[in-house]
Amino acid sequence: MVGEETCVPSQGVGGNGIASEFGDLTGMTRQEVDDFLRGLGAEIRTTREGYVAYKFFDKSTVMIRPNGEVIRTAAPKYGADGRNINKGLRLDRDGKLLRTRDEFGNLIPGTHNTGEKLNE
Prior knowledge:
8% of the residues lie in helices and 17% in strands.
């Protein structure tokens, strides 16, 4: 985090939607993250499972699990044939694209949890 007093994360790598434009949210409180993501124009909803979903106009998302774990997904990108070529791909704590599944759709071990987690 850059500057504890401002509670603003560092800059992310970008290129995969708004959810990739900022860095690690680890250590921030839920309220600080809520204020920050709302300030970026996120629409908010809470799922039945207790996740808080922040969706941006570019369709990138940040999900906060009930335990404070952060899950980011990239804005969709489409191939020449109109197919979504990055569907379901996650972003790491710096906004870089993570490949979580192989070409057969199988989960790649060690890519499900990026370790980005809020203070409770």
